[in-house]
Amino acid sequence: MAKSPSDPEQLTRRWMRRFKVPGAVVGIVERGRRPILRGYGYRNREARLPATPRTMFGLASVTKSFTAMAILRLAEDGRLSVRDPIVRHLPEFATPERRASRRITIHHFLTHTSGLPPLPSIYYTTIRSTRDDPPYDPAVARKVGIDPEHVPIDTYEQILDYLRTTRYRLLGAPGRFFSYSNEGFGLLGAVIERVTGRSYESYVEEAVLRPAGMRSTSFDPGILFRQPEVTILYSPRRAGRRHGLVPSETWWGETCLRAAGGLRSNVDDLSRYLEIYLHAGKVDGERVLRPSSVAQMMRPYAGLEGGVSYGYGVEVRPDYHGTPLVFHSGGLPGVSSLFAVAPKRGVAAVILTNVEGGSVAVPLLAALNGRLGLPLRSSLFEPPEETTPPKSLAEYDGWFCSGEGIWVRSTDRGDHLRFDFRGIELTFRDLRFRPAGRDRFVTRIGGQTGQVRFERDARGRVWALFLGHRLLRRRSPADLRRARRGRLEW
Fold first, then answer.
1. Could you tell me if 80 and 89 are in contact, meaning their C-beta atoms sit under 8 angstroms apart?
2. Less packed terminus of the chain by CB within 10 Å, N or C?
């Protein structure tokens, strides 16, 4: 048996070999010390150009924490309240359930508790990019209910119209369920524009980026042509029986969802961003947020799994081996990002890579845990509880669907559930999930423990699967056929 790595550096290099990660940059920030920033591998594997702390990567959903900061800056100035109904600022906002729509607030968008289900719109807002992206397969998209010929959704007006006219049902009353929603966070950008009378991007630059001294970070895709170091993007693609990485220079453009995932940055800049959490809203003495606003971001509002909750644009584990931990990840084709902060211990870490997936939590936590005096492989999530397996798992049999292009079939295998995925980004087969508490199951993948849970309705019937931070409704095989024909109500 191979010996477990004894230091973060060794573990990171082994992780890169295992997951074939072309390039990564890790930053460690400790209160009162100079940041430690290290690059590994290549920003351009073919040209053998190294990844460095100045290399530009995508941030994907790490952007959400910047959007939350911008909202709270406006709240500090009295220009809005997180309890404001969305329709106060976006009167045209509506869902097919009009009465419930009027009760959805800024708080609900910030915490992914609006009730919006996972919808295909993430692909329609990026469709100009995905059409040119090598790993994207329109035939696969159509099979799981994504229309590859859909009209691009570019503007806030178009996404509002989409949410108003598309056939779907809310998951529940606002505040009832957590389900990750890029549409909700994207529309926070529209709220910021309506309140300020200026573009979302320019306000984030003024309120967060400029006072934090983040000179390279930007939403502008043109920055990728002006920076001296920009990564190539790598995405996995199956070729026959072999797996490989496809290089691409096509960056997915988020258009009207850029508030959910449109920033590009480097670890040099992000080491300054982490100071906001470590110094109660200040960077080099410059105030970005009030201490009360930083605390508001890091408060646990919506429970997830493994002792983790969602705050405002960040995830929160109130007790990470005796100290609070705040973190958020991001993923798009050619992008994996993650930061984590232990504010009471005065230490934070960040990692940016140029390939999606790959369990970036492994090297980031090795760096962070080493500073916290913990075993390097301590997990972001609490370990699952021991449990006696139920006599039968048959009630969990069936198809579960996300409008973001993922279908999963759960099959009773006696002592475990077998999960088989169909979709644009997930194609796993025969993942084995074992019982770990009522309606909860766990698996091991990529060196990490994955957890899922099933939701029951008022009559005790299983109606949804909580997977990947999304609630996936239970479906019938006929629904899969309806999705292929574009007739499914999401």
1. yes
2. N
Q: What is the pLDDT of residues 143-196, one digit of tens each?
A: 888 898 899 999 999 999 999 999 999 999 999 999 999 999 999 999 999 999
Element housing 329 (H / E): strand 323-332
pLDDT at 240: 44
> What is the full DSSP assignment across 415-451?
SSEEEEEEESS-----EEEEE-STTEEEEEETTEEEE
Instruction: Give the CA distances from residue 292 to residues 65, 76, 197, 296, in Å, rounded to whole numbers and listed in that order.
Output: 16, 10, 26, 6
* Residue of 93, 86, 62, 74 lying closest to 156 (CA atoms): 93
Q: Report the chain's terminal Cα–Cα distance, integer Å.
A: 47
The per-residue pLDDT for 1 is: 36
C-alpha to C-alpha distance for 330 and 254, rounded to whole angstroms:
14
Q: What is the pLDDT of residue 134?
A: 53
DSSP string, 382-425: PPPPP-PPPS--GGG-EEEEETTTEEEEEEE-SSSEEEEEEESS
Mean pLDDT of 300-323: 95
Report in angstroms the alpha-carbon separations of 311 from 109, 200, 277, 447, 469: 11, 21, 13, 26, 14
Give the separation between CA 427 and CA 425, rounded to whole angstroms.
7
Residue 211 is predicted with a pLDDT of 97
Residues paired with residue 473 on neighbouring β-strands, in sequence order: 401, 464
Which pLDDT value is given to residue 446? 59
Neighbours of 148 (CB within 10 A): 16
How big is the chain, counted in residues? 490
Domains of the chain: 1-382 (3.40.710.10), 394-484 (2.40.128.50)
Dump pLDDT digits (tens) for 78-103: 999 999 999 999 999 999 999 999 99
Model pLDDT, residue 239? 47
| pLDDT value for 257 | 94
pLDDT of residue 449: 74
Torsion of CA 79, 83, 89, 91, to 10 degrees: -160
- Report how far residue 4's alpha carbon sits from residue 238's, in angstroms, rounded to the nearest whole number: 30
Measured CA to CA, the distance from residue 188 to residue 178 in angstroms comes to 17
Residue 145 parent element (H or E):
none
Query: Considering only CA atoms, which of 454, 431, 433 is closest in space to residue 442?
Result: 433
